[in-house]
Amino acid sequence: MRESRYWILSLGAAVCLVVLLGIHLSIMHLDTLLAYLGVVNADPLHYQAVMARGRSGGWVLAYILLLAFGLYHGLYGLRSVLSEVVSPTGQRLLTWAVVAVGFIAFTWGTYVVIKSSLMGGV
Amino acid sequence: MANFRIQRYDPEKDSRPYFQTYEVPVEQGMSILDCLFYIKERLDATLSFRASCRMGICGSCAMYINGLPRLACETQATSLATDTIEVRPLPNYEIIKDLVVDLSPLFEKHQRVRPWIIPYELEELDRPTKEYVQSPAELEKYLQFAYCLKCGLCLAACPTMATDNEFIGPQALAQAFRYNSDTRDGGDAERIAVVDTLHGLWRCHMAGACAEVCPKGVDPALAIQLMKREAVFGKKKERARLVDPRCGVTPLPGIPKAPEPTVKRSEGKR
Amino acid sequence: MRRYNNRLGIRGWIYAGNYGLERYLYFLHRISGLGLIFYLLLHIGVTSARIYGGAAWEQTMSLLSGPAFKLGEYVLMAGAIFHAANGLRLIITELGMCIGTPGRQEYPYVSSVRKQRRLMIVVMIIIAVLLLISGVDFFIL
Ligand code: SF4
Ligand code: FES
């Protein structure tokens, strides 16, 4: 595939990330701001709260999308930066290493998300 | 009087560059190049630098002057508004001696993007039968980029060039865009194949340094971003019309074939 | 003949002369990006504690509490805010918007970087405001 395809995918992922990560970060960290906006969100890090989110279909989807977009965009960026310092002979290895890390992280992350959505009683 | 701190390096004697200071009686109207000539003629004949036209058209005198890559002949000494003027060779190249750097990577990368008009009908190149019609508006689509001097300032400014030898660089990318924007040219696909690569267009992240230092307003950054768009979304290329010459010109019969070139072109090999 | 390699190296990403702010944003963008991707990998590991039950989760969370971690989290969030806003600017400019169109140049030249500078300043102001709001929410309220 031409390099431009990877690039535009990375841009698309970036735009989606701005939205998704914006929501994710506000919920996890900006409780006062959310309270002003009328969303009550006591302790998002409490195990009960975490698992409650983990069981709802919307959040499962959101987490998987966050994983996919985050890993694609982040690892594409990592490869970009490293390709500018790695010697010409290391470029292929670099690409494969990045793909491998992405694959492992995505598989593990999705496994965790699916597994916790299936865990019934807390 | 201005103090010139000049970076010196003689490959036969020095293991690393060092600085030497000279005093030059700067007057209104003297360019940095004039000052360097003053030093070479009256103070130290061993100082090496490269210059030719002294009027900003040959691109030989590119150097790093007081914190920016600039053309020495286009930089007025008084415009720097300081008495200490530091002159160094361009960064991101190899130093041959003193202020002289080896620009051959620049020229080699320039050649890789096929910076010439590749006509739709190759026959028209060798035996033109008609004339191209190009409107002023079509001309202005690429004119700005055609003013490039190959001075190499933009590669010295580019942060990606600071680490990436392979990056084809702002100058060559701007020239790829210049020829792709020419309505007489049909070589888009060939050039896109060269620049739509890991070390082509996508190593530019719009730091804008090339556009800031370009002495001719070529604005490589503009060309690169517009070319990114074309590489992703494609473009509809307008084609120059071929018309019959106004006064009947009949190509002379029996014009002999051009001889084989005596110098082998490197054709983008490294 | 010996040559002296004058390539700036990684130092050249950070500083190479009196350029505009955009060249420094180039470096900040990559540093924040690198920080975020390494954090994401870490984050995937840490949050998977939840599949080992409530106790394991609470233990991991208590490991990761305290002022130092709170500050670290804010720095990450600041990095994300910067990377997102500056990234939107880069998407706009790299797709050829807000940087002008080719044309006849007249001295003094107004380059594409200069043409997007207003956008850059607006983006920087937005970043500052977001950093302030999230900082207040994070530490004070
Ligand atoms: S684009 Fe500008 S700075 Fe770069 S080589 Fe051409 S004239 Fe020099
Ligand atoms: S001497 Fe020709 S450009 Fe300066």
Nutshell version of this structure?
The complex is a heterotrimer of chains A (122), B (270) and C (141). Chain B is an alpha+beta fold and 270 residues long.
What does this structure look like?
The complex is a heterotrimer of chains A (about 120), B (about 270) and C (about 140). Chain A has about 120 residues and is an all-alpha fold. Chain A has a single domain (about 1-120), classed as Fumarate reductase/succinate dehydrogenase, transmembrane subunit (3 helical TM bundles of succinate and fumarate reductases, Up-down Bundle). Chain A is built from 5 helices and no strands. In chain A, helix 1 (about 5-30) packs across helix 4. Chain A starts with a helix and ends with a helix. With about 270 residues, chain B is of the alpha+beta class. Chain B folds into 2 domains: about 1-100, Ubiquitin-like (UB roll) (Roll), CATH 3.10.20.30; about 105-240, Alpha-helical ferredoxin (Fumarate Reductase Iron-sulfur Protein, Chain B, domain 2, Orthogonal Bundle), CATH 1.10.1060. Chain B has helices spanning about 30-45, 105-110, 120-125, 135-140, 145, 155, 170-180, 190-195, 210-215, 220-235, and strands at about 1-10, 20-25, 60-65, 70, 85-90, 95, 100, 130-135, 240-245. The longest helix of chain B has 14 residues, at about 220-235. Chain B is elongated. Chain C has helices at about 10-15, 20-45, 55-65, 65-95, 110-115, 115-140; one strand at about 5. Chain C is built from 6 helices and 1 strand. In chain C, about 70% of the residues lie in helices and about 0% in strands. Chains in contact: A-B, A-C, B-C. FE2/S2 (inorganic) cluster binds near residues 53, 54 and 58 of chain B.
Features:
heterotrimer; A: 122 residues; 3 helical TM bundles of succinate and fumarate reductases; elongated; C: mainly alpha; binds iron/sulfur cluster; binds FE2/S2 (inorganic) cluster
Question: What is the fold's blueprint, element by element?
Answer:
The complex is a heterotrimer of chains A (122), B (270) and C (141).
Chain A: H1 3-29, H2 31-36, H3 47-55, H4 57-83, H5 91-118
Chain B: E1 2-8, E2 18-24, H1 32-43, E3 62-65, E4 68-71, E5 84-88, E6 94-97, E7 100-102, H2 104-112, H3 122-126, E8 131-133, H4 136-140, H5 143-146, H6 153-157, H7 169-180, H8 188-195, H9 209-213, H10 220-233, E9 241-243
Parallel strand pairs in B: 1-5
Antiparallel strand pairs in B: 1-2, 3-4, 3-5, 6-7, 8-9
Chain C: E1 4-5, H1 11-14, H2 21-47, H3 54-63, H4 67-94, H5 112-115, H6 117-140
The complex binds iron/sulfur cluster (SF4) and FE2/S2 (inorganic) cluster.
FE2/S2 (inorganic) cluster binds next to loops of chain B.
